[in-house]
UniProtKB/TrEMBL annotation:
This is Solute carrier organic anion transporter family member. It holds the Pfam family OATP. The chain crosses the membrane at residues 21-47, 67-88, 95-112, 153-179, 191-217, 237-261, 306-325, 345-366, 378-397, 489-510, 531-550, 576-600. It comes from Caenorhabditis briggsae. Keywords: Cell membrane, Disulfide bond, Ion transport, Membrane, Transmembrane, Transmembrane helix, Transport. GO terms for biological process: monoatomic ion transport; transmembrane transport. It comes from the Eukaryota. InterPro entries: Kazal_dom (IPR002350), MFS_trans_sf (IPR036259), OATP (IPR004156). Belongs to the organo anion transporter (TC 2.A.60) family. Signal peptide: none annotated. PANTHER family: ORGANIC ANION TRANSPORTER (PTHR11388), SOLUTE CARRIER ORGANIC ANION TRANSPORTER FAMILY MEMBER (PTHR11388:SF153). It is found in: Cell membrane. Gene3D superfamilies: MFS general substrate transporter like domains. The keyword Metal-binding does not apply.
Length: 642
């Protein structure tokens, strides 16, 4: 195959001249980023927003829904080894495209369990007011153990498995392709744009799916026929699946152009003409002709102190970040008394715009550093220390509430103007719908716990209840009592913005400089090896550790027949636990980065142009010459570089 064919855009014999303009870096960057946006929307957006609806639709326990969410990480981890093993033997861009095709198929597959589960069925509406004269409801055995429930769960897991398998090349080969196709000086900026796309995806999913969840999700039934008045009814099921299907279909279209890209772009030689060789001296080795090339490379990475310090730092950061992503909304609910909707809104409203701005600034700073490893590590260390200081926002909280049945026992009710036996005869369903007696500043777990009598005109989701025996003036309103902490909320948001900025600004700098440590032929092995550590020892256990920290600080568990859910936490202890964990991770990460910089020894090879060393082929210089030869008169190659 000739040199021209190696850089032509197309499939097999279909390589029209009109499409060859796409065999350049800018079109590649746009198409790759659009796929990163869709992957972020599906994995980090739709799954998070839809998980409660999925539990309700298929009657899953919290454990089963946790398995559903974790399946993605498991299959990404499994794929990392073959991706590293065959990195030098495949067209990486086509692998990304094929993977995103699989992501699209996996996302569409969620419609199958929605169809096979049959029409949505609900039980009797549970009461959240005081019902007297009847026995407490008993749980029926085997309510969640039917064949149908297991079948739908397996189909959901299959969907997540497809998404995990398909998405794995995107954030391994995708990162190395950005470094491979453009100048090292612009790697930080390119990674920043890439990260921005993957950050915007979840934000769009939150907005779109939030709207779709207000629409009735089962086309075979009608909510009115089931006695469901609206979305406030806990039995209401939203159109959770439509986002997955739409994103899956779009992913099939955005992935197809990636299948047509060559292994090397037309303008790669020009863009990489001035790259500088900064590989660590002990990692500057070539095992291309060795029988056990893969194992030699992995063993070399394990033995290198700089490499392992960077990977360990990224691993503990992954543990922290995955815990934050999963539980920050819940933490805001606990510390500042936000509703779940407002907590998600605040989190998205801060993290997304701050992440975009900070990532872009980080990319520009990486360009200023020219990927010099030691200055980059000191920069990341500095902002890591600042982030540790800003994590003190986790100690800001509203005044603790008085909650009957949690920190206010029945014996103390007379202090709030109520009798000890005010709700003694009420048979309360395990529904958590907090209400407040404003006059006595006492919060109840539900209108039933406040002794509110049943009435024909009272429906689930009402804003006020009357004739409540445990309230001093017999009236309660929906929600927690006002903790009057507006000042604390403003303080938290300001410091949380600073914390988010310090975290996001370091990502492009760390990633781009880390790629310079290893030989260009080992970039894919290093990236996959690092992700393997980050998944197995970072993100997967991170959610477990944070979940354990949260669970041990639970003060009230809402229990039903198949599961239990914490509804009220010790805000003070929880804030301190998150703060101490964050400080420990940031300080440990700082030490690891200092050690990485200390052990780093730049190769003794000339620090001039990498020329052919930077590309996967020896033809880079000839490509550059032919590219310059065809430029219009008076136009320099530098003016053509994006």
């Amino acid at each position: 195959m000739g040199e021209a064919d190696e850089t032509q855009f197309g499939l097999s014999w279909f390589r029209p001249k009109s499409l060859q303009v796409l065999s350049n870096f800018i079109p590649f960057m746009i198409i790759l980023s659009s796929n990163a946006l869709l992957q972020g929307a599906i994995v980090n957006g739709l799954v998070s927003v839809s998980i409660s609806s999925i539990e309700k639709r298929f009657k899953l326990t919290s454990t089963q829904s946790g398995i559903f969410a974790a399946t993605y990480d498991v299959f990404v981890t499994i794929m990392l080894i073959p991706l590293a093993l065959y990195a030098t033997k495949v067209n990486k861009v086509k692998c990304i495209g094929l993977g995103m095709m699989i992501v699209g198929i996996g996302s569409i597959l969620v419609i199958i369990p929605e169809y096979t589960a049959g029409p949505y069925s609900v039980g009797e509406a549970r009461k959240d007011v005081c019902v007297t004269g009847g026995p407490d409801k008993k749980c029926t055995e085997g309510s969640s153990d039917s064949f149908s429930a297991h079948r739908e769960l397996l189909l959901l897991l299959l969907s997540q498995a497809f998404v995990g398998i398909g998405a794995s090349p995107l954030f391994t080969y995708g990162i190395t392709c950005l470094d491979e196709f453009d100048s090292h000086k612009r790697t930080g900026r390119n990674l920043a744009l890439y990260m921005i796309a993957s950050t915007v995806g979840p934000a769009l999913a939150f907005v779109g799916c939030g709207f779709m969840l207000r629409l009735w999700g089962d086309w075979r039934t009608s909510p009115a026929d089931m006695g469901i008045d609206g979305a406030a009814d806990p039995r209401f099921i939203g159109m959770w699946w439509i986002g997955f299907v739409l994103c899956g279909v779009i992913a099939l279209f955005t992935a197809f152009p990636l299948l047509m890209f060559p292994k090397r772009l037309k303008d790669t030689g020009l863009r990489k003409a001035n790259d500088v060789h900064r590989t660590d001296a002990s990692l500057d080795k070539d095992f291309s002709d060795h029988k056990y090339e893969f194992f030699k490379i992995i063993l070399m990475l394990l033995k290198n102190k700089t490499c392992m310090c960077v990977i360990l730092m990224q691993t503990i950061e992954a543990m922290l970040m995955n815990g934050y992503i999963t539980f920050i909304p819940k933490l805001l609910e606990t510390l500042l008394g936000f509703s779940s909707g407002n907590a998600s809104l605040i989190t998205g409203g801060v993290v997304v715009p701050v992440g975009i701005v900070a990532s872009y600034i980080g990319g520009r700073i990486a360009k200023v550093f020219e990927n010099r490893f030691k200055p980059s590590m000191y920069f990341v260390m500095t902002f890591g220390i600042l982030a540790a200081g800003c994590s003190s926002c986790l100690l800001i909280r509203c005044e603790s509430l008085n909650v009957f049945g949690v920190n206010v026992p029945s014996a103390d009710l007379p202090k709030f103007g109520a009798l000890e036996t005010c709700s003694e005869n009420c048979h309360c369903d395990p529904l958590f719908n907090p209400v407040c007696s404003e006059e006595s500043k006492l919060t109840f777990l539900s209108p039933c716990h406040a002794g509110c009598a049943d009435s024909p005109d009272i429906k689930f989701g009402a804003q006020n209840w009357t004739n409540c025996g445990c309230s001093k003036n017999t009236i309660v309103k929906k929600g927690y009592c006002d903790a009057s902490c507006q000042k604390q909320i403003y303080q938290f948001i300001i410091i949380f913005i600073a914390l988010s900025f310090c975290i996001f600004i370091t990502a492009p700098v760390l990633q781009s400089s880390s790629l310079r440590v290893v030989n260009h032929k080992h970039r894919d092995h290093f990236t996959c090896f690092g992700w393997l550590w980050m998944r197995i020892l970072g993100s997967i256990p991170g959610a477990i550790v944070f979940g354990y920290i949260i669970d041990v600080n639970c003060m009230y568990w809402q229990k039903d027949c198949v599961s239990q859910k914490c509804q009220y936490y010790n805000a003070s202890n929880l804030g301190w636990a998150f703060f101490i964990f964050t400080i420990a991770v940031k300080l440990t990460g700082g030490v690891l980065l200092f050690m990485a910089a200390y052990f780093y020894k730049e190769s003794d090879k000339p620090s001039g142009k990498e020329s052919c060393r930077t590309l996967d082929t020896d033809a880079s210089e000839s490509v550059k010459m032919s590219y310059e030869k065809n430029l219009p008169t008076g136009l320099s190659p530098q003016t053509m570089v994006y």
